[in-house]
Structures are given as structure tokens and as C-alpha cells.
């Protein structure tokens, strides 16, 4: 489905040369060698200058000094080889300017050909002897060209299926012995020359020559070692043209027959394999040469007739040969040479006239209609000689070489230009003779075929005008290349007069160099185009049509390399156009930035989507979008949605949600990529076309939740329209069944919606998406009122809202409107959606026993299972019947409510049910507070709360039940002394019993460490002064203890308080001293451990050495604690390190051990010092209070000592903090630095130098908890010191 289009064209006149006989290309130095009349010219490919020329006449025989039969350049030797008809083999070295006759054959030479790798030189002498020589021109072998044998690959047959084994009827057995006569009539135009062609790998060579005995031509295949492999079968009219396809599967030649001229192909075994007919009769031309390009996808045919020379470029697709390009040379512009570049795949070198040297560089493109059209027919145009094959893939998929519509032209076609989106029916066809054909209208009727006149010289050159595009609706733009410079030519179709010549104009645009691509911006309606120059620059061309056509040019950013395919997207009107390009090295560029490097084909889907195929055989859908504040397009392959495709697939066109791919063989495949389907669905959902999207989702098996998740608010707003547009009611049931709470834009289709704005708040309440959508569906169906929506409504209720009871109620209500048929239909539908047991229970919940019996019968349940139960229920009272139903359904709260309506069953069933199901609160709410049953329920509830140790609530329930003693007991257990005092006043206990209750309360308060409240109860309400002071001393409330002793006028208790203060001082002094001593020891040990670790290398990533104390001497794990399997010479040792959970936790505790010599001792020291520092700083408030108490009892010396001791300890910890927690340890990048130091790119030297620079060892610091890697966070602003103690 691809066409050949000119990519680069340079045509220049070469001075000093009039004609040439042989041409060869030197791709390494970008030069071309031309031979004429004993002189070799070296011409640059970049300009028209002759770099050097050299005469070789004196090195040839006097008689045949100008007759050279072949010339070839060997890049390995760097020499030019010439073979003369007299037999001289001449080597010309340009760098040293040395000419040497490296060999001479007395019989003369007829052919010379280097092998593809340029290591073997093949020669055919005048006596039809094949010779091979090495790079040093030493003979390898000699073989006669014409041999009597077929070759080593001669066919072996046992006669099966041959003529001798067939039945010949009336002809008799003698017919089996007759041999058919084979006509070997030679071609009358065969020049008798010898042609040779190597296979691409250099293992075989084909030689075409005329057999002397029959004067007919045949092809013989020799191996590299000179052994004849095969001889071609006899082909009448075989001609001299010969070309072996570089890929190796076909040998091309020509055959002339009385009624047609054909290019035929042979296999390497000599058998005829395929052919195609040339587009001219055999009497009107003769093929001079066939040649393949490097990648074997184009066959060039050089033929001549009375009008001059012609070149055809042919390619094969789906076993059909197409003529993709053709251009002619008049008799005045005689074609002298034509050869493909040995390196550049699609570059053709042509020498013609006197003397013009042209290079044509081609590119494969798909000519399809604009994707920006409002109704995109996805029309593809394929060139096949004089026909244009059109297929609209949006309507039908026709495999090539067939088509939906064929446009026939008077001569061969070179380019097809399909119309802009505003005029999609316009088609302009560029013919090989330079004329234009214009088709218009839906039927594509031919309006005219006219010549084009350009006001410039060199009108007769072939392919003068190229790169045709529609610039505006009626304006065509093309490129004319003269020399090394391109010119823009415009053609206005409406302004042309009714004559046979179209007058074109030249735009005055300053261009430096040749144009490679010419691409419209967006849909092309604004007259803007992007030009890619050969120098790499990009230009934005703006056409303006105000009377005379004018233009302005604006330079754009350059691309790093030349682009073969360029598309320009206008993603946003307020932003600059986005340039997307694909280079010849499969690199994809977006605005000059490389995005991918393995892209094989590209397709643009407006306004902002790309379809790509990659060499990894995947199809990618890539979204383009601008940054918020920058004019830069952002896209990465990580955001692309991919799917697998067949190997070698290439994009042809996209039609709606379908993509047409062409396989390497040429056949087509149509797929619907999920990303493209979702893009099409999103387009329709935004416009409210829910029915169209629903049908699309069903066909593509896409989750129907996306109908809602794409835009929930929009769907809920247009639910009525959605229900009205859905013609099949079953689709509504399908949606209700498939609804779930999952947001598919974040799960299944997150790749497609990545980077797109999503609603922050969802338009449904706590019930969720399914409930909200099904509720709206039910409302919309109720508003519609159609009887056809009866079953979808049942589905929404039973499945969507998960309320089969409401669905059964709807079935029951439908009986009155539609009769028993609706009931049967509804029950049958519900039984397919819901479990029969669940539906039966839902019917019971409605207390509709006939309906329940009908459901059970429809579900084919055994009547013995449900009829006795239903009959028993119907014999009961209504309240108790409802209770039995609810109890059966385990709806205990409803059952309790119905049972409360049966007063005679309160004690026997109500209270036991409330106890069994713990339904105390619902039971309490069923009775008024003054009811006796309320008090009983409250009492039972209080006992339950007391058992559950919910004492405060138990007090409330006991008080409501007026069980005061139980409430007092609960308050004593809870330590609620205020409630206890209130209840004691209510009970009016005797003093002894009252005192006993208060002591019980104080005991609980002491257990709860509520010392001040316990002292208050003992002192104020029990008059127990000693116990009150003891409680305050126990809680270290020294000031309150002194207050109680003074208030009770007990000076003896002051001594008790003083003694408590002194005991507290001794304890605090000892604790501070212990903290300081331990911290100093840890600090000293930390310095030693860090020094040792810096002086010797450590294990990385938590590896534990064999001397680790984590393993006992009998442990089966050695070398590493990572649990990996260790093999080798360990013998009886096992590599398994699997441990139980208990052992694993034990190992984790032992990991950071303070034992000297432990592998992670420094980390254990850090943790211990962190804990000590935190504990010391936490003592500041307590020490301040104790110092005040010491001052109050005249213990000033002790107060000074305690404050000084803590102050010095805290100062020590503050001073050592930078040393213990250095900045490199506390920085957030500490772990990253370790990974970089010991990463895969590190070396021994880098690790050693890093260890020397480090002040502390950072490895394995991830084993320490994060809170211990930083210094303790303390309140530095706390003023805890007493100024009177600063002595």
C-alpha cells in the first residue's frame, strides 16, 4: 500500500565531460567515477565539479585502447579496476595516482564483476572461460562457461507423475515415449554480451551467456569455489539483462514473446519462478539493464524505444508487481548510465545528456486521505503503472492488489495528491511525462489532463517538479530543483484558462539548498506548511492569497537528523505547531527531542495522538500534550498504551477505531487497538452519545463501568436520555449487572487516562457508585413508564441495589397493572439473577407468604421443606408470626421489636433473646423509661456492662434500674468517688459501712496512681491524715503533703515528708550518676569502634562475616546471613537458613548487640546513647520540683548537688552530640551515598578512597531505626534550673 516518492533530488551539469561509457560509485568518499574515451573522471556527489581526471590510454593495447568492457571500484583496495576487451585488467589507485596492468588475458575479456564483499574478482574471457581472482589478483580457479552437465544441484526423480506413467487413451503407449519439442528460438535483439551477477552473500554467481551450439541464451550458476551448481531451464526469448536479488531468492532477467514483454525470475536451481509483464509491447522497446537496490525491494528496469530511454521502478506486494515510478529521457537526453548506490538504500545515480548527473533519493510513503476530515473515509491511493488504485477503508477492506475503485490514466503515474479535508473529493495525479490529471466529485470524474509550464530553464529534465501538496483548496504547491537549489512552484487551478497548458508561478522564497519534505500544518486550511531543508533546518511557510499569492517564512528549531516522514500537528490554537518526525534510523522526534529509537512506521491521529509500530513488534498509542506553562510538547513511551502485532507489521491508515496494518508479504490485517477504541469512546461520551459507546463497548468487550467513570456527573445528568436512546432493554440489565465500585479510569484503563484531569469529588453519596447509578436508572425508567423496562428495573433493584425485597415488591405491584403474566416473567427473571434461597428469604421478609410459596415453587424446591413452615406461620398471631419470620431470617432487631408486642412472652423469650444476641440498647429503646420492663432491661444491661468492665456505663444502667447498691459497687470499682459519695448519700449507710466503701474507693484510686484524689478522699471524707500524707508522699506531691500535715496540725508528719524527700533525692542522684557513667563509657567505646571500622573494610548490605556472634558454633549457616544457598566444598554444611518466627525475632534482637566486637556494635551504641540522652532530658521537670522540695526542708546542699549533677550530665551530652551524630550520618542522602560508594559502578580504589574521606562508617546504617539516626529532639527552651542554686 506504499508508494515511492522523491525525497531528495539533485540534477547538475558536469563540465569537461560530453559522454560516458561506464559509471561506478564510491560511497565512502561520496564520489562517482565516470569513464569515457580512455579517461576516468572523479565527480563529487555534492556538487557539479570534476575533482580529478586521469588518462589510461597508454596502458591499453594500441588496437583496443578505448574499448573498456567493465569498470568497478573496490573499496577494500581503494582502487578502480577496468577490464578491456583486449584482455587487460587495469588497476588505478587515486590516492597514489598509480596505474598498473595487474593481468592480461590473451583471449580478451567479456565481463568483470567483484563479489559483494569485494574479495573475489570474477572474469569471463573471450573463449567463454570463467576465472576468479583474489584481492591480490592471484588466480583462484578456472572453469569453462558452457558445460554439458546441469550442475551439482541436478534434480533427482524416480518417475512418479512423469509422462511415461500416465494413461494416454487413444494415442496408445507410443505417446508415452515421445519427447515434446522445446523451441529455443533466440531473441533477435540479443547483443550476445556476457552478464554476471553475484548473490548478496557472495556464495553464488549467475552468468548469462549465449550457448554457441544453439545460439540461445541460458543462465548458469557457479559457486564461489568455481563449481557449476545449476543451469537454467530453456526459456524461449531469454535476453541479456541479469540481476540477482541481494536477498538471494530470485534472479531477474527478461523474456520477449510475440505478444508481450516480461521480466521473469529464476531460483538458484535454475527453475523459472514468477514473472510480470512490462507495460509496453515487445516491438516498441528493448530492456537494456535490470538492477536491484540494496534492500532488494525495488527493481529498476532500463528500456529504450524510438522515443528515447525510460526507467521503471518496480516493487512487489502480496505477490503482485507494481510500477511505482517511471521517468523518460528523450533521444536528445540520451540515458548513459543508471546505478543504485551501494550504501544508501533508495538512492539512484543517473547520468544522461551531455552531461547531466542526477541523484534521486526515494522514500516510501502511504498516500491516504487527511485524518483531519470531519468524515474520514480513510482512503488510500496505490500507484500501479498507469492506474491509481483507491480503497476507502472506512467502508470496506479490500486486500491488494485489488481495490474498490480504479482510476485509469493515459500514461504512468508518479504521484497522487488527495484533497484537503475541505475538498476531500479532489484528486490530483502527477503523470510521468510531467502532465497533471485532475479528478473531482464523489464519482471521481476526470476533468482534464494538462501540461504544466514553469517559467524557468531546463524544462525538459525528467522529474523536474516533485513534492506536490495541496496548499489551499485550489492551490497546489510543488518543488522544482535546479542544480543544488530548490524553488517553490505554485499552481492556482481556478485561475487557469481553458487551454492545454497550466501556467505556474515561482514563489520568491529565499531557500538555501534543496527541500526534503513539504508538510501542511494540521488540516492545511490555514495555508501554513513546514519545509525541511537538506541542511537540517525547518522553515514555517505562511501563504497569503490577497490577489497575488505571497508568502512569509519563519525559521523553526532544527532536528538532530534528517526526517523521512514529517507530520505537523496543531494541538492547541494558542500554542505553536508540534512537529513529529521519523528518521531513517527509526528514531522518532517530537519538536526536535528524541522520544523513541525503534519506530518502524508512524500514523497521526488528530489532534494529539500518534500510532507507532516498533521493531519489538508492538503497536503503541502515544498521547501528546503541552506543559502547563511552557510551549513544549511532552510525551514519553512509558505513557504509551501498547499491544502486540505480527512481526514486520507497518501502519497503513486508521479508520475510526480500526487500524489497517500491512504485513511484510503485502497482505492486510485490520485490528481495533484498545487505546484507539477508548479514544473514540471518549470523544462520543463527551458529546453524550452513550448509546453509540454502549454498542462499541459490547462489541469490544470493554468494561461497561467506563460509561460512568469517564464523566460521572455527565452520565447522572443525562440518565434519562441514556435510557431513552438504548433500544434494547436487555442492555440496561447488562449495565446494572456489570456495575461495580471500581474506578476503571484508575485501574483497567489507567494507561489511557494518565495525565488527564479527573474530577476530585464524585457525585454520589456514601452508598457508592453502584447504588447511585442504579437509583438514577430506576428513576429514569419510572419516568419513562414503558412496560419494556420492567425487567431492567428488576435487575437494577435486585443486582445493582442488592435489594431483592424491593424487586419482589415491584413484581407484586406489577400484578395489578399487567396481571399474572408479569409476575411469572418477573420471578423467572429474578431467579436467573439471584440465588433461589436468597429470593425466598426476601419474600419472607415482606411477610407475603403466598409470594414466598410461589418463589419456592418456581425454584423447584421440595414442598416438604417449606409448606409446613409456611402453614405453621399462618396459624400464629400477627406479632409473633413476624417475630418467627425475623428470627428465621436472623434479623434480630426486627424480631426483638415484634416480640416486644407480645407482653406474655417478655420473661420467657424477650430477655433471653436480648442476653443471647447482646441487643440491650435496641431492647431498651422499645420501652418508655417509666415502664417496669424498661427497668428490667436496664438491670440486665448493667450486669452485662459490669461483666465487660465498662463501669461508667454500668453505673448509669444500674441507676436507671434503681439498683443503688450495684451502682455503688460499680462506682467503687471504677474509682468514681464523686458518684460513690452521691450514692452513699442516697443509701444512707451507717458510718462504719460508709467508711468501708470510701476506703475501697481510695484503694482503687491508689492502684490507678491517682494519689491526689485518693489523699482527698482519705483526708476530707475519712479523716485518715496519716494515710492521706502517705498517699501524697507515694505520689511525690511534697507541697500537698506538707499542706495536709500543717492543716491537720501534725508536725510529726512533716518529718515523714522530709524523709520521703531525702529518699527521693538519693534515688534521683543515683539515677543521674548512672546515666552519666553509662553515657561516658558508650562514648569512649564508640570512638574506638568507629576508628577500627574506618581502618579496615566492612561488609556491604548487611552481610555478616563468619566470625559474627549472631550464629552459634553449631549453626548450619555459614558465610552470610542473607539466607542464600551456599554450595561448593562445604561438605556436610547446609545452605538453608530458614528459621521460625521466634528464632527470627531473637536474631533481630541480637543483631544490634552491645557486646564488644559485635559486627554492628557502633549502631547498638548509637541507639543506647540516644535512649540515655532522651531519659536524662526527661528528668528536668522532676529534678526542678525535687530541688524546690529540698529547699523547703533546708536541704540546700543536696539541691545544689542534684541540679549540678544533672546540668553537667546534660552538658556532656550536648557537647558530644556533633561527634555522636555527625552531619553525614544525619543527612537524608546518607543511604544514597552508601549505595553510590558500594554500587555496581564502584571499584576497589573508589571504595578505599571513599572510606578514607569518611569521618564515620556509613555502611549498614539502614539497620538502625530512623529515629536513632538523628540526635534526640528536646525542648531547649525549658527553664528548669533554679537561680538560687547557681553557686
TrEMBL record:
<dbReference type="InterPro" id="IPR056169">
    <property type="entry name" value="HB_ELP1"/>
</dbReference>
<dbReference type="GO" id="GO:0005829">
    <property type="term" value="C:cytosol"/>
</dbReference>
<keyword id="KW-0539">Nucleus</keyword>
<dbReference type="InterPro" id="IPR006849">
    <property type="entry name" value="Elp1"/>
</dbReference>
<feature type="domain" description="ELP1 N-terminal second beta-propeller">
    <location>
        <begin position="382"/>
        <end position="652"/>
    </location>
</feature>
<dbReference type="GO" id="GO:0000049">
    <property type="term" value="F:tRNA binding"/>
</dbReference>
<feature type="domain" description="ELP1 three-helical bundle">
    <location>
        <begin position="1056"/>
        <end position="1220"/>
    </location>
</feature>
<dbReference type="GO" id="GO:0005634">
    <property type="term" value="C:nucleus"/>
</dbReference>
<feature type="compositionally biased region" description="Low complexity">
    <location>
        <begin position="1112"/>
        <end position="1138"/>
    </location>
</feature>
<dbReference type="Pfam" id="PF23936">
    <property type="entry name" value="HB_ELP1"/>
</dbReference>
<keyword id="KW-0963">Cytoplasm</keyword>
<keyword id="KW-0819">tRNA processing</keyword>
<feature type="region of interest" description="Disordered">
    <location>
        <begin position="1090"/>
        <end position="1153"/>
    </location>
</feature>
<feature type="domain" description="ELP1 first N-terminal beta-propeller">
    <location>
        <begin position="1"/>
        <end position="343"/>
    </location>
</feature>
<feature type="domain" description="ELP1 alpha-solenoid">
    <location>
        <begin position="674"/>
        <end position="873"/>
    </location>
</feature>
<feature type="domain" description="ELP1 TPR">
    <location>
        <begin position="880"/>
        <end position="1042"/>
    </location>
</feature>
<dbReference type="InterPro" id="IPR056166">
    <property type="entry name" value="TPR_ELP1"/>
</dbReference>
<dbReference type="Pfam" id="PF23797">
    <property type="entry name" value="Beta-prop_ELP1_2nd"/>
</dbReference>
<dbReference type="Pfam" id="PF23878">
    <property type="entry name" value="TPR_ELP1"/>
</dbReference>
<dbReference type="InterPro" id="IPR056165">
    <property type="entry name" value="Beta-prop_ELP1_2nd"/>
</dbReference>
<dbReference type="Pfam" id="PF04762">
    <property type="entry name" value="Beta-prop_ELP1_1st"/>
</dbReference>
<feature type="compositionally biased region" description="Basic and acidic residues">
    <location>
        <begin position="1090"/>
        <end position="1103"/>
    </location>
</feature>
<dbReference type="GO" id="GO:0002926">
    <property type="term" value="P:tRNA wobble base 5-methoxycarbonylmethyl-2-thiouridinylation"/>
</dbReference>
<dbReference type="InterPro" id="IPR056167">
    <property type="entry name" value="A-sol_ELP1"/>
</dbReference>
<dbReference type="Pfam" id="PF23925">
    <property type="entry name" value="A-sol_ELP1"/>
</dbReference>
<comment type="pathway">
    <text>tRNA modification; 5-methoxycarbonylmethyl-2-thiouridine-tRNA biosynthesis.</text>
</comment>
<feature type="region of interest" description="Disordered">
    <location>
        <begin position="169"/>
        <end position="195"/>
    </location>
</feature>
<dbReference type="GO" id="GO:0033588">
    <property type="term" value="C:elongator holoenzyme complex"/>
</dbReference>
<feature type="compositionally biased region" description="Basic residues">
    <location>
        <begin position="1139"/>
        <end position="1148"/>
    </location>
</feature>
<comment type="similarity">
    <text>Belongs to the ELP1/IKA1 family.</text>
</comment>
<dbReference type="InterPro" id="IPR056164">
    <property type="entry name" value="Beta-prop_ELP1_1st"/>
</dbReference>
<comment type="function">
    <text>Component of the elongator complex which is required for multiple tRNA modifications, including mcm5U (5-methoxycarbonylmethyl uridine), mcm5s2U (5-methoxycarbonylmethyl-2-thiouridine), and ncm5U (5-carbamoylmethyl uridine). The elongator complex catalyzes formation of carboxymethyluridine in the wobble base at position 34 in tRNAs.</text>
</comment>
<protein>
    <recommendedName>
        <fullName>Elongator complex protein 1</fullName>
    </recommendedName>
</protein>
